[in-house]
Amino acid sequence: MRPAGRWRAEVMLHGALILAAVVVLFPFLWITLAAFKTQIALLSGAVTFTPVLSNFRDVLFSKTSEYVQNFLNSTIVGLGSTLGVLVVGTLGAWSLRRMRWPLPVSQGLLAWAIVFQMIPPITMVGAWYVMFRTVGLYNTYAGLMLAHLTLNLPLVLWMMSVFVAQVPVELEEAARIDGASTPGLLWRVVVPVIRPGLTACGLLVFILSWNEFAVALNLTAKQTATVPVAIAKYAQEFEIQYTQMAASAVLSIVPALILLLIGQRHIVRGLTIGAIK
Amino acid sequence: MRHDRLWRAVTLGPTIGIFVALTALPIATLVAMSFHDVTWVQGLPRWTYVGFKHLAALPQDYLFRAGIVNTLIFALSAVSAQMVLGFCLALASSKVARGRVLYRATFILPILVPGIVIGAIWKLMYNFDFGVINQIGGLLGLAPRDWLGLKSTALLSVILVDCWHWTPFCFLLLLAGLESQPQDIYEAGKVDGAGPWGELRYLTVPLMIPTIVVTLIFRMIMAFKVFDEVYLLTGGGPGTATEVISFTIYRRFFTEDRVGYGSAISIVTLLLIAALIALAMAAARRWGRQP
Fold it and tell me: What percent of chain A has a predicted confidence (pLDDT) above 70?
């Protein structure tokens, strides 16, 4: 192509991409602005307004708001289920790859993982609800953690089996010859090699748990409700506090935003490997 | 290599335990419950056998029917739009000399945000009185509309939100596919005098077919699960205009507290999805392999 044509193509491509970026970013910008408006300023639709912090203050510190508790609940459930699913899934993936399970077991488990991944969570939550209420796990951190662990286990099993397969077999054999026990081998040889995979997988799973709504809605009550459940409540009140809803929405995005800033590379890796492999 | 039976059990045991206790057992429970009425007596379930009553009632359930139809319309139209848009964006980002990382970081933002928050943001943006959509429409001379409250626009509005939410996901996977393509074929294409359109038609698209098929199936499966946005934006309304199957299950099982009947819908939905998956897998095997 002629240099002039090439230059023009580049400008057009950037034009299209910038337009798309504006479409992506605009709702975030709009909701952030709404969070700094008074209810009157929002309802009047004024373009210029004096920003206020009262919405954030009400959401975080008012006596009737439980948002801080919801935030804490989401963090506890997110961290607990992420840690749990990484341990269970990585051990399982390593075992399937390295412990010479008969083919029906390994293929069967991985196939079941895919099938379960495809099932809408709402179909499972009814059974979980009845089971958890029967054994006393309803409305507990442990119950929701177990549910999130189960939902994300197929993904972790698949992702980690990709990473575990990349650990050189010779390295594991050498460690065995040096007399390493199985836990020693896992901790000193396997985990250091797959650490980037664990990071990618962990970030993704934490975000999935943080965002999850359908299951959290039905397995929690007031004390254990997570952030998405709390935000959904706003929308159902008789007189919707629009600006507070906006403020709580903005606050709920902050953790994902921080994780994106720290680990964009890892998240992209997690999302693409989780889907493609 | 030494094979320690104990460590074999310890490493895979938890995975098997979770799958059995929290996926297989619940599905068996759902099957059992769909033949029973379940009521709660002092915090414990009491089961009463009712035979095929629930399953027989299903075909006449107008919500269930609307749920199936709307879920299909929703999944097909939303996912096709997302695939086309995502492909164009991925292609554009793969061609620019600089800024790809920045574009990608921007575009994946919606994937990382809770569905319920996306619902909240768009519910405010669609608002009849102060929503920005009507404001922009006003600037263009359009009369304000109650986008989510009208039968004619409600489903379309939800699909639009879903496109904003998930086009980035298609974009990301397709871009990963484009980045992993062998460059020498493109060099050869240039030598043979292929223009940009010829390159797209005869090299990029054929080479991308496997990635496209995988992305499409993946997104389809996710689209059948749609719940969060519908819950917040419309609650299935107006009437049954945006009733999707996940929402029907939620309504029957939890809102109306009909455990047995809700289980019956869940099981039938599972079977329908299993059939669709089998179909998709067969299609993928047929077309996914071609170079």
Answer: 97
User: Contact A213/B116, CB-based, under 8 Å?
Assistant: yes
Residue B59 lies in a domain: yes
Residue B14, in any domain of the structure: no
Cβ-based contacts of A176 with chain B (< 8 Å): 1-2
Domain of residue B116 covers 53-287
pLDDT-wise least confident of A54-58, B3-7, B90-94, B122-126: B3-7
Mean pLDDT in chain B?
89
Residue A62 has pLDDT above 50, yes or no: yes
What is the total residue count of chain A? 277
- Where in chain A are the domains? 3-54, 64-276
Listed by number, the residues of chain A in 26-45 with a beta carbon closer than 8 Å to a beta carbon of chain B are: 27-28, 30-31, 34, 42-45
Look at residue B290 in the predicted model and tell me its pLDDT: 47
Architecture label for domain A64-276: Orthogonal Bundle (1.10)
Q: Which alpha helices (H) appear in chain A, and where do they start and end?
A: 3-35, 39-44, 54-61, 67-98, 103-118, 121-135, 141-165, 169-177, 182-185, 191-211, 214-219, 227-236, 242-276
Interface of A with B in 52-91 (CB under 8 A): 87-89, 91
Count of structural domains, chain B: 1
Q: Would you say residue B144 lies in a domain?
A: yes
Whether the per-residue pLDDT at A163 is higher than 70: the answer is: yes
Residue contact B33–A127, C-beta within 8 A: yes
Q: What's the CATH number where B221 sits?
A: 1.10.3720.10
Per CB-CB distance under 8 Å, the chain B contacts of A129 are 253-254
For A188-240, write each residue's pLDDT tens digit: 889 999 999 999 999 999 999 999 999 999 999 988 999 999 999 887 777 78
Omega before residue B238 within 30° of 0, cis: yes
Asked whether residue A4 carries a pLDDT value surpassing 80, the answer given is no
How close, in Å, is residue B3 to chain A by CA atoms?
7
Beta-carbon separation of A260 and B112 below 8 A = yes
Residue A138: phi, psi to the nearest 5?
-65, 140
Nearest by CB: A207 against B18, B106, B112? B112
Please report the ipTM that was assigned to this predicted complex.
0.89
Contact A129 B221 (CB under 8 A): no
Is B11 within 8 Å of A24 when comparing Cβ atoms?
no
The span from the CA of A82 to the CA of A207, in Å, is 9
